[in-house]
Design brief:
alpha/beta; about 25% strand; Thrombin, subunit H; TIM Barrel; six-stranded antiparallel β-sheet; globular; about 600 residues
Length: about 600
């Protein structure tokens, strides 16, 4: 089987606890921030915790990828280099990086993944990254199945694609609005989420086309219905977004996609999951019951309408129904969904305003909220906090076990008890036959040996196969069997946790970059990144916006496949006309919009 035939469910890990939960609930791999320089500044972790997570992951042949995917300044290069080597010695399976200066460092033999922040939108870019030494490329979220298939068919590098979670409205790595407005850079892991603010859309004649809406706030991605096609397209790793989400979101989303992917793999014997282990769930996963801004498949099937939520950037959750009747202290909803005390609801009112309300009590079909809000018949109701479901997730004891083969065989004078997960990883203990009595009831003795060796309890294993090949079965005391079982399990766990496969050693080359020169959009912020581009025959004519001393006027702050005009039903390709340029206006300033209608792109520019 080729490496693309091993399908991986990749989950986010805020910390060690979350990482362990991700594996328990079915992830094949996790990505986690290191001590510094991860693209979520508030999700850093110690090398010691990461090493513990690596050991846990390797029990199931899982992988841990450490995110070191911010751009770096010159004074940070030494620290980043030290962290990389520490991560390698901790057993980390790959580094996720954005800054090309890292490829100019003296690196350990560790796999490198090109973060989505490196703007991996075209075949040419992915091919270049493969040629310079990346083992995996994290594809841009905006790509369609057709574009992903084309990239996969012309490259051999591993491909990773997002399947669930929040969407950046700009191409990743190409959003500078946060840095422009407040000196907090998305490329430095400190985005202020300018896309979740309200804006008005105004033309050159000061006509206001949209007033005070969340014009850049996208819904959340959900590719449940496109998973099979994504697997068939050549994607190896299916990625869930959300290193800052809570643990119930993690458990629910991982459980949902584990089940969905397993169903695909069970019907496709040409592909296998990339790790091992069986997870038994004590709840029914349902992504609608966790945080979401409503869902969209985004551009996976081509250009889409209604991919933003113009009325709120907050979690809506699952649709419940419509308000049916309103009284002074209560209301009813036209719905088949059963609500419970302490549920949280979001009501979308007729004027498109949203209001949250907590359910105090439910009597029959009548809801008594903690406080009454203005309601009208027909208002849309969502549940963004499912108290009973989330409580069950918090209490969930879902666990994961891997198959263990147990053999009891004999030699001339010894009995061998072997535990193994494959032909290369096994442990054995030996019992001297002379020290054991012949059993008075051979069948009972045989049955008891199997029973005691199968008592694997809260270990990572379950006994999948058992072979007993002894003549004249002896009587082995339960105390002896328990000790043997315990010592073999501990020894086998140790072998699995130490399993580590080095990546390839990076050999710098001179493959030409896809452009002859690069500007601030290449995010070059240190001397090693300059050295990288020069090595690959590209002149750095402008440093990263974060350190550039040049003017910030008329800079492209976002480059996006999402188009506001298409979203509001006013696409210029369909004949709608405006007095250009159009402006996005917030409470502080305005931004110019440019439209590449031929290629369906929108760009947002600074004006001062």
């Amino acid at each position: 089987m080729s490496k693309r035939d091993f399908i991986e469910l990749l989950a986010p890990a805020k910390n060690l606890e979350y990482g362990v939960a991700a594996f328990d609930y079915g992830a094949d791999a996790v990505y986690i921030g290191g001590p510094s320089f991860g693209a979520r500044a508030n999700a850093g972790n110690s090398i010691q915790d990461i090493e513990s997570l690596v050991r846990y992951a390797h029990r199931y042949d899982g992988d841990v990828f450490m995110a070191l995917n911010t751009i770096l300044y010159d004074h940070e290069l030494e620290e980043a280099h030290r962290i990389i080597w520490e991560a390698y010695h901790a057993g980390v399976d790959a580094l996720i990086v954005q800054d090309m200066g890292i490829l100019e460092m003296d690196l350990p033999p560790i796999s490198l993944h090109a973060s989505t922040q490196t703007n991996n939108f075209t075949l040419e870019k992915v091919s270049f990254l493969e040629k310079v030494g990346f083992d995996r490329v994290v594809l841009a979220r905006e790509l369609s199945l057709e574009e992903i298939t084309n990239i996969a068919s012309h490259t051999d590098v591993e491909l990773e694609a997002f399947i669930h979670g929040a969407l950046c409205v700009s191409l990743s790595g190409q959003c500078y609005m946060s840095a422009y407005n407040g000196a907090r850079s998305a490329n430095r892991g400190a985005c202020v989420q300018s896309c979740r603010k309200t804006y008005s859309l105004i033309d050159a004649n000061d006509t206001k086309w949209v007033d005070n809406k969340y014009l850049l706030s996208l819904k959340d991605m959900n590719q449940t219905h496109s998973l099979k096609e994504m697997v068939d397209s050549g994607v190896q790793s299916l990625k869930i977004e959300g290193r800052l989400k809570d643990i119930t979101y993690l458990k629910n989303s991982v459980g949902h996609y584990r089940r969905s992917i397993d169903e695909i793999l069970n019907n496709d014997h040409t592909k296998r999951r990339s790790s091992v282990g069986k997870t038994v769930y004590d709840f029914t996963p349902d992504p609608k019951k966790s945080f979401s801004r409503d869902f969209t498949p985004y551009f996976i099937n081509g250009k889409q309408n209604s991919i933003a939520n113009l009325d709120t950037p907050k979690s809506l959750g699952e649709y419940i129904g419509e308000v049916d009747e309103v009284s002074k202290k209560s209301f009813t909803i036209k719905s088949e969904v059963e609500l419970a005390n302490n549920d949280g609801l979001v009501v979308v009112q007729s004027n498109a305003q949203t209001e949250g309300v907590k359910v105090n009590t439910v009597v029959g079909d009548r809801i008594f909220p903690q406080r009454m809000i203005p309601l009208s018949k027909g208002d849309q109701v969502y549940r963004n906090y499912n108290h009973q479901f989330l409580h069950s997730l918090e209490k969930s004891r879902t666990s994961r076990k891997r198959a263990l083969q147990v053999e009891v065989t004999e030699g001339a004078e010894i009995i061998t008890i072997r535990f193994h997960v494959d032909e290369h990883r096994f442990v054995e203990q030996y019992l001297d036959r002379k020290e054991l009595e012949i059993a008075k009831n051979e069948e009972a003795a045989k049955s008891n040996i199997e029973k005691q060796l199968s008592k694997l309890g809260d270990t990572p294993f379950y006994m999948s196969q058992y072979r007993f090949d002894l003549s004249n079965a002896p009587f082995i005391p339960n105390k002896v069997l328990s000790q043997v079982r315990r010592e073999l399990v501990e020894a086998l766990i140790g072998i699995l946790e130490e399993t580590h496969i080095d990546g390839s050693t990076l050999i710098p080359n001179h493959v030409p970059y896809i452009e002859n020169e690069v500007d601030y959009r290449a995010n070059v912020a240190n001397r090693l990144a300059v050295q990288f581009y020069e090595r690959h025959q590209a002149k750095v004519k402008e440093m990263a916006l974060e350190i550039s001393k040049g003017t910030r006027k008329n800079k492209m702050l976002m480059h996006t496949r999402y188009c506001i005009l298409n979203e509001i039903g006013k696409c210029m390709k369909r004949g709608h006309q405006f007095a250009l340029p159009l402006m996005l206006v917030d409470e502080k300033q305005q931004y110019r919009l440019d439209f590449d209608c031929k290629n369906c792109f929108m760009e947002i520019y600074s004006t001062k």
